[in-house]
Amino acid sequence: HDHALLEQLCTISDDWLSRPGRTERGFVMGNFNYDYLQRCAVMVARDDAGVIRGFLNQVPTFTIVEANYDMLRSATTAPSNTNDYLLMSFIEQISADGYERINLGLSPLVGIEEADNTSLISTAMRLIYRGGERFYSFQGLRKFKAKYRPEWSDRYIVYKNGVPGFTRTVRALVRAMGRL
Q1: Three-state secondary-structure class, residue 108
Q2: How many whole angstroms separate alpha carbon 111 and alpha carbon 154?
Q3: Please, what's the largest Cα pairwise distance for the chain?
Q4: Are strands 66-74 and 52-59 parallel, antiparallel or unpaired?
Q5: For 174, how many CA atoms within 13 A lie in the half-sphere containing its CB?
Q6: Which pLDDT tens digit goes with each residue over 20-51?
Q7: From CA 178, how far away is CA 159, in angstroms rounded?
Q8: CA 128 to CA 142: how far, in whole Å?
Q9: pLDDT at position 29
Q10: What are the distances in angstroms from CA 117 to CA 68, 110, 121, 152?
Q11: Which of 8, 24, 132, 154 could form a disulfide with 31 if both were Cys (CB 3.0 to 4.6 A apart)?
Q12: What's the rounded mean pLDDT across residues 155-174?
């Protein structure tokens, strides 16, 4: 991609990151980086004047039947449905390219509200899901992805040694995601 395009995408990314609760994660998602984006296909949404208002990057995948994207970002000045437009356009494109499905990525703690488990750790996870919106948009991300009627698949993080092991694991994940 030429430098001018990457500069425009960087401006949109910085705008997106300036909103409350948004931050580069890095561990479970890519972060905005010129070299990284050079290895990805990029789809943009332009307004009537040709100004880029949002973008999505396609991540290389290990399977030829499933496409994956990483960053889905739009400017504050973009219409409110820009991300939906980009994702639907991406789905159309990957379908034309022969992909059978799309991986919408992780949506942490989805399903925790319905869990029967009343252990201390499960209770803590439900409280984090309900009250952790200032650190991570758990419910907003779930709501955005749910409207595409995904097939949810469980993912687990394994730890040992009860509450102390759980606490160490969570601290390590938070550090890896750049929050400490």
Answers
A1: coil
A2: 9
A3: 58
A4: antiparallel
A5: 12
A6: 767 666 555 667 889 999 999 999 999 999 99
A7: 20
A8: 14
A9: 61
A10: 32, 14, 9, 19
A11: 24
A12: 84
Q: Is the pLDDT of residue 80 over 70?
A: yes
Output phi, psi for 48, to 5 deg.
-60, -25
Cα within 13 Å of Cα(167), Cβ side:
4
Helix axes 162-176, 120-131, angle to 10 degrees: 30
What band does 82 get if pLDDT is binned at 50, 70 and 90? very high
| Strand pairing class (101-103; 66-74) | parallel
The kind and range of the H/E element at 45 are: strand 41-46
Q: Which helix (H) or strand (E) holds 43?
A: strand 41-46
Alpha-carbon span 142 to 25, nearest angstrom:
17
Q: What is the mean pLDDT of residues 85-91?
A: 96
pLDDT at 180: 36
